[in-house]
Design a protein that fits this description.
The chain is built from 7 helices and no strands. The relative contact order is 0.12.
């Protein structure tokens, strides 16, 4: 049977239930933007209001589940085991190879055109840069990982609010 070992840093476990905090934050922002907006001027019955809130809560729940899957994936790969020799160098070589292929190769991203290739190249460049930092500077690994986690939670909240 396959067993997955999860070795997250202790400072990430010290956050008080991040998913609960994010879901409550999302509900408060959604309620504030929807109910107390100055252009909200409508007359609904009590039954219509209940239907509106139930459908809105259902929609928000599914958006939260979809968006939290990316946060879950991020937290799944946060362990230090990938920085052990030779795994770290193999993963770094794959990231650099992927970056070079997307930058200089003819990929499907080029067919879409627009800003999609630049967005993907920027994302993979940032991911490769921070992977190099985490691989080659283990002394500051906890600090770098903490700020990466904070920036991911910030982006997650931003995307949820912009929904």
């Amino acid at each position: 049977m396959l067993q997955i070992q999860y070795n997250a840093p202790k400072e990430i476990h010290s956050f008080p239930l991040p998913r609960l905090f994010l879901s409550c934050h999302n509900l408060l922002i959604s309620a504030d933007c929807g109910l107390f907006h100055p252009i909200t001027d409508a007359n609904f019955s009590v039954i219509e209001l209940i239907k509106i809130f139930l459908l809105g809560a259902l929609s928000d729940f599914f958006v939260f589940v979809l968006a939290s899957s990316f946060l879950w994936l991020y937290l799944l790969f946060i362990s230090n085991s990938k920085y052990d020799k030779p795994y770290g160098y193999v993963i770094l070589a794959l990231l650099v190879g992927l970056l070079l292929y997307i930058k200089f190769g003819n990929t499907i991203l080029n067919e879409y055109g627009g800003s999609l290739p630049e967005v993907v190249i920027t994302f993979i460049s940032i991911k490769t840069f921070f992977f190099c930092l985490l691989l080659f500077v283990p002394k500051y690994r906890k600090l770098i990982r903490f700020w990466l986690f904070c920036s991911v939670v910030f982006l997650y909240n931003l995307i949820i609010i912009q929904n």
